[in-house]
Amino acid sequence: MSAVAQVIDVNAAAETEQELTDGFHLVIDALKLNGIETIYGVPGIPITDLGRMAQAEGIRVISFRHEQNAGNAAAIAGFLTKKPGICLTVSAPGFLNGLTALANATTNCFPMILISGSSEREIVDLQQGDYEEMDQLAIAKPLCKAAFRVLHAADIGIGVARAIRAAVSGRPGGVYLDLPAKLFSQVMDADAGAKSLVKVIDAAPEQIPSKAALDRALDVLKSAKKPLIILGKGAAYAQADEEIRSFIETTGIPFLPMSMAKGLLPDTHPQSAGAARSTVLKDSDVVLLIGARLNWLLSHGKGKTWGDAPKKFIQIDIEPKEMDSNVEIVAPLVGDIGSVVAALNAGVSSGWQAPPASWINEIKARKEVNIGKMSQRLLKNSTPMDFHSALGALKQVIKERPDAILVNEGANTLDLARGVIDMYEPRKRLDVGTWGVMGIGMGYAIGAAVETGKPVLAVEGDSAFGFSGMEVETICRYELPVTIVIFNNNGIYRGLDTDPTGRDPGTTVFVKDSRYDKMMEAFGGAGYHVTTPDELKKAVDEAMNSGKPALINAVIDPAAGSESGNIGSLNPQSIVKKK
């Protein structure tokens, strides 16, 4: 053999022995390196094999029936863990389905990454009609916090790292990561690939407010005669539970929790003003916002809701642009909630004067009146049930199971449950949040069950359940400890509307006396049909004790609901009468 032939043989052998990796494995390795343990998604071209390989590499892959529900699961995973939840979708239609959840996550400040396969750039850019062709990056950019595309296998590590950091740093939000189909099959040297991966360090660094800002805020708070603290879901996300509790109890200031902040301190805490919401918003003079925004949920900080008493607002938020968004913030505290509240605690550690007894007694008196009125409605044992009597039964369930996670959506089902069902532990109430969007129910229930291992009680309006109801099959397939209660009043708001022409059902009416419990039974779960509060309580206890999937069809009086629950004023009314 010639020397040239020998050299060729040696080189060929070296190439044969060289260890290679590809885009599939680099994506998985990058996620694992950064502590990602779960992927939510819907399999299909071009990401089917990515899901299979991720599962083989030890990542838990939860496959859904619709991408929006998978995205909602990833979003709530981000809220509960402070790590970005991952949603994996196919291109074009699948990407668009996931995009709704991504936009909702961004609005709610939940860290989430939507990873979608996509068509090849050279074909998309020339609009040559590729399979599911769409310029996904351009579409995603306006609807999320950041968006990136990776074209080369060597850049996967950086792409994943940038997505993670963008999702959790500062004000958390949704990030889109575009992975064209050809990227997955790109091959490179395994050692070089391993070196290209990036472990994100200090992705969400502390942001500490200045001493001047703290002194200003404390001076304003000390001047208050009727102070109030409002806790938002940002306070729950921060997981600064002990610092927040210490500050509230040290100052003696009444607190009002927004719905997903319920349980940071128990709703039964003596300083809770939840049962006197109208009074404290109207009569307070200094309001400290912790992780809450003065958006529509708080009437933008002005108008009749806030009364005539002059208000001074102190706001804690990590985003400077949030300040003065609706009204003047006289003492902005820009920083992460844990650091800011810790600094406030240091400032009130000695010499703090409790709020005037007259303010505390005013709130206490209003609470007693409102709780007394509500208790009578909750104890009503009529057949069919109304919303209050049904919620009265579920109020007792959560009292007996404070570690259970409550997922809640609907119109009346949501609005009334916020005020009726007390929460006792943080991050146990998950609902529609800032946008008020329906359809989060099954995604949130699945994400909460997977991430925490805790039992989940999903309380759904029959309309809200329809957006994600097919995921009961997913719940059964993964044998998750999820109990669903559907408040079935035969329609949206009520089940009594009619078509004036007599041709069709009313626009808000569903099939009368539907049996949603049979739907769950079809997939192997337990189904219950109940008509009284006692039956409802018994069914929920049995279902949750079993730890297995269950659905309870709770029959509600079709006439019991009201238009849009507590936000009917947002529904425009026609002033034109047709002749």
TrEMBL record:
The keyword Zinc belongs to this UniProt entry's keyword annotation: no
InterPro entries the record matches: DHS-like_NAD/FAD-binding_dom, HACL1-like, Oxalyl-CoA_decarboxylase, THDP-binding, Thiamin_PyroP_enz_cen_dom, Thiamin_PyroP_enz_TPP-bd_dom, TPP_enzyme_TPP-bd
Enzyme nomenclature, EC number: 4.1.1.8
Statement: the UniProt record of this protein carries the keyword tRNA-binding: no
Keywords: Lyase, Magnesium, Metal-binding, Thiamine pyrophosphate
Family, as annotated: Belongs to the TPP enzyme family.
Name this polypeptide is given: Oxalyl-CoA decarboxylase
Organism from which the protein derives: Ancylobacter amanitiformis
Origin organism lineage: Bacteria, Pseudomonadati, Pseudomonadota, Alphaproteobacteria, Hyphomicrobiales
